[in-house]
Amino acid sequence: RVSVIVLSVLLLTLIPAPLAAGAPATQLYTVVFNQETLPTDAASQVAAAGGEVVMTIPEIGVLQARAPGGFAGRMLRTGLVKSAGPSLPVTLEISRVEVLTETEDVDWTKANLWYRQWDIKRVTNNGLSFAISTGTHDVMVAVIDTGILPVHPALTANFLGGRNFVPAGGFGGDPTESGDPNDFTDRHGHGTHCAGTIAANGRVLGVGPDLAVRAYRCLTAEGSGSSLWIIAAMVAAADDGCKVLSMSLGGWDIKGQVWWTDPVTGETFKLGNDVADFNAYRRAVAHAGNHGALVVSSAGNDGWNCSQKGIVTKYLNDEYGPLGYRFVGASYHVPSAVAGAICVSATGPDDSLASYSNYGGGYIHIAAPGGDAQRYPQPGWYTDMCLNAYGYLLPDGSGYVGYAWMAGTSMAVPKVAGIAALIAVQHPGYGPAQIKTEIYQTAQHIGAGQYFGAGLVDAYTALGGQ
Fold first, then answer.
1. Which end of the chain is less enclosed by CB atoms within 10 A, N or C?
2. Using CA atoms, how far apart are residues 318 and 328, in angstroms rounded to an integer?
3. 268 and 214 in contact (C-beta within 8 Å)?
4. DSSP3 helix / strand / coil % (the chain, rounded to 5)
5. Beta 342-347 vs 294-298: how paired, if at all?
6. What is the DSSP letter of 338?
7. Is 22 exposed, middle or buried (0-12, 13-18, 19+ CB in 10 A)?
8. What is the rounded distance in angstroms from the CA atom of residue 231 to the CA atom of residue 79?
């Protein structure tokens, strides 16, 4: 009997850490400078404002500092800073975890599990695209996520290393988080599944079974992280030469007015049209594009019509009010709604919009199979989700190596990212804009653009199949 972990809808959403009574003595702040480079005296400016630099992203003029209350206001008054405020924590939310044993619905003794990969079949025209191209290691896809399990047999041939952006201690002083930049092994499983969707080559297949994938770990074993860890990973992946950034995660942006009240001093600051973390996301997407890298990101799993901006703004005020923020205006998902990125919605086995997928006119660019779990608890309900590689390894040596069904816009993104990489292999001179055009023009029309954008992504047609 083989145990298989099955996870349903996953999403990455910003979850604010509630302020303790009297506010914490110190906390993490994001500082975005006016210029997209760091001033030579940035560290001394931070120190003068009472803080200590803990992370810098000099390529986009952003840093993270630990400081007491009042720090953001002091930095804003220097005249050097575009925005400053508390760094927003993030977490992967898992709505259901099911542990199943072998059943008659899936024969785990079979060497090849292709017969259950309806989602990969759908976007490869039942594998016909493989006859045109399976990819090469000349094009690398960055999986910006929980890491990748390098020893997974379906991924070892295509795994080209990676980097870790979780600092020493992680969140809450985790002693197993050393900050080692080479500690990119998946401790969660989400990133490994996304990597398999791109480039698995074994009992399961990805959309490009010979593409190269690199791990950029920016989330802990619990799926927690900081926006700045993610943003630093984006910049590094582009600088490392990755052609596609696969980001099955995201948060929310505001275009309007933002105020922040310091919980210690009670002083209120007008931050302009955005909060610091979101300004940093926009700079990271632009940096990737300037280095020839295409950002592919999820639409989110809230089931929202994201063209109704007030719904999201209310959510932001409800969620971030405890951090002292107040938002007025229209809200957008980032990095998927940032100019230059591709925003991906998810479909189920019948090509309908997945029950959890966000949507909205002018928001969704493309759709891809993400699976669904609406038939739960009917027999075989999990086969409507996406089967691929899954595994993790914890510091104590425990872990899992195998396969899992998952569903979410998280599972849709790597299909688009993998097809983007296949196009880049076929057309080495293409930049991000040309790759996007090829994806959009060859998509299958399956319904209204507010749900599916240009349509369902199609590897076979995108690679020239007739």
1. C
2. 12
3. no
4. 25, 30, 45
5. parallel
6. S
7. exposed
8. 24
Closest CA to 340 of 286, 274, 415, 281: 286
Q: Where does 321-408 have alpha helices with state H?
A: none
> pLDDT digit string (tens) for 82-128?
988 878 777 775 544 443 344 545 565 567 889 999 999 999 999 99
Angle at 371 between CA 126 and CA 308, to 5 degrees: 125
Structure-token pair, residue 334: 């980032």
Please give the Cα distance from 101 to 3 (Å, whole number): 5
Calculate the average pLDDT of the chain.
88
Q: Tokens standing for 273?
A: 């049209």
Give the span between the Cα atoms of 361 and 305, in whole angstroms. Answer: 8
Dihedral of alpha carbons 400, 401, 402, 406, sign: positive
**Are 163 and 217 a contacting pair, CB within 8 Å?**
yes
Greater pLDDT, 377 or 423: 423
CA distance to 63, 82, 184, 396, per residue, from 54 (Å): 8, 19, 20, 27
Return the structure tokens found at 411.
Answer: 């599972």
pLDDT at 153 over 50: yes
pLDDT digits (tens, 9 = 90+) for 278-292: 889 999 999 999 999
Give the DSSP letter of residue 10: E
> In sequence order, what DSSP letters do the residues of 94-134 get, joined into one string?
ES-EEEE--BTTB-TT-S--GGG-HHHHHHHTTTGGGGT--
Three-class SS state of 328: strand
DSSP 18: P
Instruction: Give the dihedral sign, CA 220/225/229/231.
Output: positive
- CA-to-CA dists, residue 78 to 31, 33, 258, angstroms: 12, 10, 19
Are 283 and 32 in contact by the 8 Å Cβ rule? The answer is yes
The angle formed by the CA atoms of residues 189, 92 and 197, to the nearest 5 degrees, is: 45
Direct distance between the N- and C-terminal alpha carbons of the chain, in angstroms, rounded to an integer: 43
15 — pLDDT class (breaks 50, 70, 90): very low
| Structural tokens at position 118 | 């309806």
Cross-strand pairs, 92: 12
> Using one digit for the tens of pLDDT, what is the confidence trace for 174-189?
999 999 999 999 999 9
Q: How far apart are CA 253 and CA 88, in angstroms?
A: 12
Residue 3 has pLDDT above 80, yes or no: no
Q: Is the pLDDT of residue 4 over 70?
A: no
Alpha-helix runs per DSSP H in 112-239: 118-124, 190-199, 227-239
